[in-house]
TrEMBL record:
Signal peptide per UniProt: none
A Pfam family reported for this protein in Swiss-Prot or TrEMBL: PG_binding_1
Segments forming domain Peptidoglycan binding-like: 43-91
Any one GO molecular-function label of the UniProt entry: peptidase activity
Protein name: Serine protease
Keywords assigned by UniProt, alphabetized: Hydrolase, Protease
InterPro entries the UniProt entry points to: Peptidoglycan-bd-like, PGBD-like_sf, PGBDSf
Gene3D superfamilies tied to this protein: PGBD-like superfamily/PGBD (1.10.101.10)
Keyword Lyase among UniProt keywords: no
Keyword Acyltransferase included in the entry's annotation: no
GO BP: proteolysis
Length: 120
């Protein structure tokens, strides 16, 4: 079966256990020409929240609203990564954010880890 459950040439097996790929591994790239700040509402803000959550920051992953809680987490991210602390998500934080998510995806295989835990 393909990951979305389709058979190839009428053949395939169904897995006993399905393991979802972490959300952060399938995020769209956020244009680094944009600046996001408190009061903004944009689909890219949800992407920021999912990514920050994957990096260990406490954020609401569901909303497309840039609120004070997200601003505080963006400030924490900026401070932890020695960036100018403004609370706005612009080119510099975006570049570091993308770099860290790629690094995380390359270093850590969440699907493999879940599979190993199931097999134990």
């Amino acid at each position: 079966l393909t990951p979305d459950g389709h058979y190839i040439h009428g053949k395939g097996i169904k897995p006993d256990v399905t393991i979802d790929t972490p959300k952060y591994q399938s995020l769209n790239v956020i244009p680094n020409t944009k600046t996001f700040k408190v009061g903004d509402d944009d689909k890219n803000i949800k992407t920021i929240k999912i990514g920050l959550s994957a990096l260990g920051y406490k954020v609401d992953n569901e909303s497309t609203q840039f609120d004070k809680a997200l601003e505080n987490q963006v400030k924490a991210f900026q401070q932890a990564n020695k960036l100018e602390v403004t609370g706005e998500f612009n080119k510099e934080p975006n570049n570091k954010f993308t770099e860290l998510l790629i690094e995380k995806a390359n270093k850590h295989d969440d699907v493999l880890d879940k599979l190993i835990n199931i097999l134990k």
